[in-house]
Amino acid sequence: MSSLRVQKRLASSILRCGNKKIWLDPNEANEIANANTRQSVRKLIKDGLIIKKPVAVHSRFRTRKNNEARRKGRHMGHDDQYHAVDLDPYGTPAQFLDGAVQCIKKNGVLCVTAIDMPLLCGNNPHS
After folding, report:
1. What is the CATH number of domain 5-52?
2. Is the predicted pLDDT of residue 54 greater than 60, yes or no?
3. Distance of alpha carbon 36 from alpha carbon 125, whole angstroms
4. Cα→Cα distances 86→11, 77, 107, Å
5. Which of 40, 78, 85, 125 is deepest in the core (most CB within 10 A)?
6. In the chain, which residues fall in CATH 1.10.1650.10?
7. d(C-alpha 93, C-alpha 10), whole Å
8. Is residue 41 a contact partner of residue 14, using CB atoms and an 8 Å limit?
């Protein structure tokens, strides 16, 4: 059986895909080998002897699951954690405490400043 590299390359150029996405009918190898022009390869594509393989679906389930676990603080290695975390938000620090505690190392330091500036400056109408 002769090499069908040229025909495969022509077909991938015509179908606008990579060489690995081209399927050549093994039963018609001799007829495909005779096709050495773009026009003859187009005819073989039209006849169904050369086919573009369908796109394989790659599942994102595992990636999404690992990303969700990271958001929850899992998979935090020793290098991903901090010795000291200084938490000084504009408002209340309550919403940041859980994440701050999860990202410090064992025996680490968590510095929290809870100053509610709108209340101190009089910007809040309910004060």
Report:
1. 1.10.1650.10
2. yes
3. 82
4. 61, 20, 15
5. 85
6. 5-52
7. 63
8. yes
Q: What is the mean pLDDT of the segment spanning 72-97?
A: 82
- Which residue bears the tokens 């010795």? 83
Q: For residue 97, which of 105, 108, 85, 107 has the smallest C-alpha distance?
A: 85
**pLDDT, mean over the chain:** 87
Q: What is the per-residue pLDDT for 118?
A: 64
d(CA 30, CA 37): 15
Which ranges of the chain would DSSP assign to H, the alpha helix? 5-15, 29-34, 38-47, 61-71, 97-102, 117-121
Q: How many residues does the chain have?
A: 127
The string of pLDDT tens digits covering residues 85-102 is: 999 888 788 889 888 888
Q: Which amino acid is present at 47?
A: D
CA distances, 37 to each of 17, 53, 108 (Å)? 18, 21, 71
